[in-house]
Amino acid sequence: MLRPLAQVPRRAPRHLPGTKTLEENKKALAKLLADRIMAADQHIQNDMYGSRYEFDILSEYGYTDIALKAVTQTGQPGYVHQIAKGATSLWEQWTDRLSVNHHYRSNVATWFYQGLAGIKPTSTAYESLRIRPYVPSAAINSQVPKNTEDTDLAPATLDHVSASIDTVRGKVSSEWRRRPDGRIDLAVTIPYNTEAEIWVPIQDKSVTAPRDVAFVRDDTSGGAGYKVYRARAGSYRFNAG
């Protein structure tokens, strides 16, 4: 008998006996997505609906470099090609045959602040949130193309990300820079009536934390190591000196 997921007890498994678990399937899917992009010369290989989920799952399972390379790759299909064709909004398709002002692909902008900057709610209306930036290491195209023939876009590592979002509780912000010593200088702002977990990328180095935060644990995400801290309203900077 089929039952709505909401009626299935929390303790019940979300897979059939003898089959892979949800976690195993997600891990396998992330690898498949990454392999497809690599096999297509770093070009995105999804449709408008699939892209809604692709970037998040790639970062979650350690493929942030591949995701960012795909986002910044020249040629078709891709966002850089749209910009090179003069686009100022996202298209419905990878070609300009249909709508050239379509929200379906706006998820890539969401990934910028939720993945690269790491801002994500963990409860309704940002009562609690997590700041966990995924820091890429690969060299990517760093300039805006003038036209479709302009493909030499000065590859460089992404060394600075800054994002903020206005919530019902106030502004949340996250900004990181790659220091000369390899550490990540992370500055965050948490609004009132909000509790946050702040995940500081360690990059195999020590972390200098401000006094007004509480260390929680060492953890990993996407294959990268983090020091996790808990904080309430205020502005905090890690690895400042």
List the helices and strands and how they pair.
Blueprint: H1 22-39, H2 51-60, H3 64-72, H4 79-84, H5 107-116, E1 119-121, E2 128-131, E3 139-140, E4 156-157, E5 160-167, E6 170-178, E7 184-190, E8 195-201, E9 214-221, E10 224-231, E11 234-238
Parallel strand pairs: 2-8
Antiparallel strand pairs: 1-2, 3-4, 5-6, 6-7, 7-11, 8-10, 9-10
Helix pairs in contact: 1-2, 2-3, 2-5
Mean pLDDT: 92
Total DSSP E strands: 11
Q: Which word captures the global form?
A: globular
* Major sheet description: 5 strands, mixed
How large a portion of the residues is in β-strands, by DSSP E? 25-35%
Count of helical regions: 5
Q: How helix-rich are the residues, as a percent range?
A: 10-25%
Output the structural class: alpha+beta
What is the string of helix and strand elements?
Answer: HHHHHEEEEEEEEEEE
Distance between the termini: 61 Å
List low-confidence stretches: none
- Give the spatial strand order of the biggest sheet: 1-2-8-10-9
Radius of gyration: 20 Å
Features of this protein?
globular, 241 residues, 5 helices, alpha+beta
3D structure, described in words:
The protein is an alpha+beta fold and 241 residues long. Helix content is 22%, strand content 26%. The protein contains five helices and eleven strands; from the N terminus they run αααααβββββββββββ. It has a five-stranded mixed beta sheet. It has a four-stranded antiparallel beta sheet with strand order 5-6-7-11, covered by helices on one side. It has a two-stranded antiparallel ribbon with strand order 3-4. Strand 6 and strand 7 form a beta hairpin. Helix 1 packs across helix 2 and helix 2 packs across helix 3. The longest helix has 18 residues. The radius of gyration is 20 Å and the shape is globular.
